[in-house]
Design goal:
Elements: E1 7-11, H1 15-26, E2 30-35, H2 38-44, E3 50-53, H3 59-64, E4 72-75, H4 81-93, E5 99-102, H5 106-114, E6 119-121, H6 126-134, E7 140-145, E8 150-156, H7 166-169, H8 171-175, E9 177-184, E10 187-190, E11 203-209, H9 210-217
Parallel strand pairs: 1-2, 1-4, 2-3, 4-5, 5-6
Antiparallel strand pairs: 7-8, 8-11, 9-10, 9-11
């Protein structure tokens, strides 16, 4: 993997939060996953550096986790707007250097920006944006930017990879990317093993830094 290892805290282990936490850890970063639901914490634990069960609205608990020592914190709490806003306020007051938060609508986003969130993301709304961007990149089917440095894309398998395994292609070292899933004949292979062999027609779900993605899809 290219670049310096960073430390991320992801709060909220729903679909977006858990996928993001896994992907960042796959890229070699240190990831602390946080949720109040013990089952979600247990489910994510094998895929991150550390997973803890706390109430994220508890300022003392967040402070004890050393929030300000992380390079960035991602708040992926969507269902309870009050909790999302309160957690973001607490984290900003604790001095985190970079705060990203998921918003459910424009009003939610406006409040998040007002309280100082550095980047607001709309995982659902951005679907249309990523499709539009992908139209200008021939072998990229869909694309989503979720931080200043990273992109999540669906890409048609490069022809030269067909017949080779993930470990043979050495995607992390040579290309600086992480393959989260392979779509093949309408089915998904999630978190494929290093020994998995690529086949012509595969569609890959890939996470990586912008420059690496551009080199891969150019």
């Amino acid at each position: 993997m290219k670049g310096k290892t960073k430390q991320f805290m992801v709060l909220g282990m729903g679909l977006f939060g858990s996928s993001l936490a896994k992907a960042l850890h796959e890229l070699g970063h240190e990831v602390l996953a946080v949720d109040s639901d013990a089952d979600l914490v247990e489910a994510i634990a094998p895929y991150v550096t550390q997973a803890v069960q706390i109430d994220a609205t508890d300022e003392a608990a967040l402070q004890e986790l050393g929030v300000r020592n992380f390079d960035a914190v991602i708040v992926s709490i969507g269902k309870k707007l009050r909790d999302s806003i309160l957690v973001c306020v607490i984290i900003k007051e604790l001095g985190v250097p970079y705060l990203i938060a998921k918003a459910t609508d424009e009003i939610h986003a406006k409040v998040l920006r007002k309280i100082g969130v550095d980047r607001v993301v709309f995982p659902e709304r951005d679907m249309g944006v990523r499709v539009a961007k992908s139209l200008s990149t021939p072998n990229v089917l869909e694309m989503m930017e979720f931080s200043g440095d990273y992109q999540l894309i669906e890409i048609i398998l490069p022809a030269k990879w067909a017949g080779h395994s993930i470990i043979e292609v050495d995607v992390r070292r040579k290309y600086g990317i992480s393959i989260l899933a392979i779509q093949r004949n309408g089915q998904f292979i999630v978190s494929p093993l290093p020994e998995a062999v690529f086949e012509t027609g595969d569609i890959l779900l890939v996470l990586g830094q912008k420059d690496d993605i551009n080199n891969l899809s150019g």
